[in-house]
Amino acid sequence: APNEGELPQYYIEGHHEPIIAPEEWEKVQSIIQKRSEAFKQLNYQKYSKDQHKNSSFTEKLYCGECGNVLGYERSLERRGSNGTKEINRWVCRLAEKYYAVNGCSSQRFHQDYLEKHFINLLKGFEQDE
């Protein structure tokens, strides 16, 4: 069981050979720090956890291959010095489980594709009247 301050804790120097040499450890920490500072300067937009950008389609879309619910994923694609592009996709929740025994082989599709075909569907209803 981990000791979270209930018992005295001791630090013994030179007890065993380190897994990583101290110089290498410092180099890695320096690289991590530089990357962290560079990332902070990119000024990415973040959505709050309770903001559901695509709530209109959530829990309403199902995989045509296996019948599982489709989930939404959002990512940012870096575009060099031009900034970033937001990528919105829908994916079968079973297809993204790489080690599932009976996984689904359906592919992700972009939000733009969904919106385009949804609008065409609505236009079809208008023309039928």
TrEMBL record:
**A single MF term (Gene Ontology):** DNA strand exchange activity
Ranges of residues in domain Recombinase = 8-35
The Recombinase zinc beta ribbon domain extends over 57-122
Instruction: Provide the protein name.
Output: Uncharacterized protein
**Species this chain originates from:** Bacillus salacetis
